[in-house]
Write a structure and sequence with these properties.
Elements lengths: L5 H13 L2 H7 L4 H15 L4 E4 L2 E4 L1 H33 E6 L1 H6 L1 H11 L4 E6 L2 H9 L5 E4 L8 E16 L13 H5 L3 E4 L4 H12 L7 E5 L2 H9 L5 E4 L8 E4 L7 E9 L6 H12 L9
Parallel strand pairs: 3-4, 3-5, 7-8
Antiparallel strand pairs: 1-2, 5-11, 6-9, 6-10, 6-11
Helix pairs in contact: 1-2, 1-3, 1-4, 2-3, 6-11
GO molecular function, one term: transcription cis-regulatory region binding
Protein name: LysR family transcriptional regulator
Pfam families: HTH_1 (PF00126), LysR_substrate (PF03466)
């Protein structure tokens, strides 16, 4: 059995509502002979008599009433599908939702967004700044179109792409004893010293923990746990203690970088989006801008 065309189903529903093939044809912008032919084709395909044609008009047969009722539900579902698709298309055209962890949000994403806005002046863009774990979760749930993370760990349910390489640096205030060391710190000295750190879920915290574990020294010992990179930086400047922060944050003269012997705090910054989804529109443009930039924004000296 061949499925009837959608326009034929619309005709059938309208005949039931209007009691006239001619009026139904006029609503759909076609002629009465064309509408009659289309309805006859539906009856042949279904093997049912759907319309009782009389001099006073046309009415649905009992079978026609059943088929018209089901046709109405099909057309309603199709209308909902088309409305939903249009809403999604309009959302992608008019807006872009982005989430980023602290380091890319403070130093990299604003540059990419600025370039994107120059070519898309009417674009509405929202940026949510949180830690890497939360960015990954927002992307996984489809609450943002694109995320940027600094987490070194696996990202199940997400597609990821390298956009930059960052380097972490141990920093202390000028009055700290490490500021006057004539030699690099040993990994053991770093591991045994309480540090000002980000909260669990932060990519910076995860990177430092992983490096120390790989050296057989266990996770970092928190002196203070703070919720942003700027809070960690300001606490170090205020003399609260040492920390490990992005090299992008070490421009302040109140911070003294300290070398660590045999330790590589390099990490990859990645764009993330739901696995299996193809980026399009502004999200794809933003990703292209990110990967086109220098992949090593903070090279080692």
């Amino acid at each position: 059995m061949t499925a009837p065309e959608l326009d034929a189903l619309r005709l059938l529903v309208l005949v039931g509502e209007l009691g006239s093939i001619g009026q139904a044809a006029a609503v759909l912008g076609t002629t009465q002979p064309s509408a009659s032919k289309r309805l006859s084709t539906v009856e042949r395909r279904l093997g049912l008599v759907l319309i009782d044609r009389t001099r006073r008009g046309s009415v649905l047969t009992p079978d026609g009433g059943v088929i018209a009722g089901r046709a109405r539900r099909v057309l309603d579902e199709l209308g909902g599908l088309l409305d939903g698709a249009e809403a999604l298309r309009a959302r992608h055209q008019a807006g872009l939702r982005v989430a980023a962890s602290m380091t890319p949000a403070e130093h990299l994403v604003p540059v990419w967004i600025g370039e994107l806005n120059r070519t898309n002046p009417g674009l509405r863009l929202g940026l949510e700044v949180t830690n890497s774990d939360q960015v990954a979760e927002l992307a996984r749930e489809g609450k943002v179109d694109l995320g940027f993370v600094e987490s070194p760990g696996a990202l199940p349910g997400l597609t990821s792409l390298k956009v930059a390489v960052d380097h972490l640096v141990v920093v202390v205030p000028g009055a700290h004893p490490w500021a006057r060391l004539s030699r690099p710190l040993t990994p053991a000295e770093l591991a045994n010293t309480p540090l000002i750190v980000r909260e669990p879920g932060s990519g910076t915290r995860e990177t430092v923990d992983n490096v120390l574990r790989e050296a057989g020294l266990g996770p970092v010992k928190p002196l203070l746990e703070l919720g942003s990179a700027s809070a960690v930086r300001n606490a170090v400047i205020a003399g609260a203690g040492p920390a490990v922060i992005s090299a992008l944050d070490v421009a302040d003269p109140g911070l003294v970088p300290v070398a660590v012997e045999g330790v590589d705090f390099g990490r990859t910054l990645r764009a993330v989006w739901p696995e299996g989804r193809r980026l399009a529109g502004p999200a794809a443009e933003l990703l292209a801008l990110a990967v086109r930039r220098d992949l090593d924004p903070c090279p080692t000296s």
